[in-house]
Amino acid sequence: MSLLHILHHPDPRLRTKAAPIVEFPSAVATLAEDMLETMYAAPGIGLAATQVNVHQRLIVVDVSEGNNEPHVLINPKLTLIGENIPWEEGCLSVPGIYETVQRSEHIEVLAQSVTGDEFTMQASGLLAICIQHECDHLDGKLFVDYLSSLKRSRINKKLKKNKEQA
Ligand code: ZN
Q: For the chain, which terminus, N or C, has the lower number of CB atoms within 10 Å?
C-alpha cells in the first residue's frame, strides 16, 4: 500500500468530472486500499479519487471512531431523502477551512464494490453528509462552491496566505 498525494484547492484538476469505472481489475482494489490508507493518515473521514488525481468514480469513507468501518463506493448514485440540514464541513483538499453547508439528512446509494458487485446502502447524519460531499468531488464540485462569493474569496485569500507561509 502507498500514500497518495492529495490535490489542494484551487488546483484545476479538482474540477475534473470523473469517468465511470467499467472494468474491475485488481488495480481498482489497490486504488481503494491506497485511498483508505491516505485518508486515515491525513486524517480524514472521506476521500474521492478526484482528490488524488485519479478521475474515476470511486470514493472511500469511514466515519467510525476506530477507523474500522470503511466503505468503498464505485459509480455511486445518490437518492436524497428527507430534509436538508446544516452541517459544518471540512475537506482534505481545502485544508484548515470549516464552513456550514446544507445537505440531505438521509440518502440511499446504489454503488458497486471493487469487484463490480452492485449493492445499495442507506445512510443518515454524518455518513450521509460525507458521502454527498465525496460524490460532489466526482463531479468536480467542492463544498466551498455552496458558500457566498464573499466567503469564497476570503477562503481563497486565506489558503493563498497559508501556502505562502508553508
Ligand atoms: Zn472533500
A: C
